Amino acid sequence: MSRLPTIFISHGSPMEALDAGRAGQAWTELAAALLRPRTIVMVSAHFSAPYPVLGTTAQHDTIHDFYGFPQALYALRYNAAGEPDLAFQLAEALQAQGLPVRIDPNRGLDHGAWVPLRYMYPDADVPVVNLSIDENKGPAYHYQLGQALASSLADDVLLIASGSLTHNLGDFRRPHRSVPRYVTAFQAWMQDRLKARDIAALLDYREQSLEGVQAHPSDEHLLPLFVALGAAGEQSEARVWFSEINHQILAMDVYRFERSA
Q1: Band of residue 1 on the pLDDT scale cut at 50, 70, 90
Q2: Nearest CA to 227 among 91, 107, 157, 131?
Q3: Domain count of the chain?
Q4: What are the Extradiol ring-cleavage dioxygenase class III enzyme subunit B domain coordinates in residue numbering (predicted)?
């Protein structure tokens, strides 16, 4: 069978769960364009630990990890199954490469995971395995984590990295009449460097891009992208699936990385 790509999704605000507009349509169309995965490995910006953690639950709870939103959001559930056997296999593979892996039998799906999954697989009928990021480690660590995963991802396993191409919450909370220049400039810089597969520049984006620090005052929402990039292999091809800016601040870009042999 054909090999599934790895995916980076900008998941936006929790409100996307109620109406994601064109982004939600793009997520739905992306799932329809892919072969149906046996399992999803989910790398969410909202699941961080000081070492790689793999979720081994057999049945996910829905985590409502946000405050002050409409009550309708807290009533939503996305109770997908887990796949403990795959989680343990991936843990063993990462441990064999010297990574200090932990397992978590209770971790559910945070909104970085279940918001896009509601549109991609609305029946919650594809099992999901969580893998953590480490918000205190930079892009190089996460790229290497993806590389360490690559040989253990079967062709029918879909890795989804969920974060945001831009994520300046301070600016998000301020009204804007138009999109700030740094948002579109960073969006264009990332697209250019990803298509060129300029790994050195991407891993050093905070220095190499003039807008990198303003687009990401902290790293965590871009870090999942580097896991997807590393897991896709050294000869992978980056394709823009969707590109839009919401709330004048959040670049909602979606990338698929075609996995190399």
Answers
A1: low
A2: 131
A3: 1
A4: 7-250
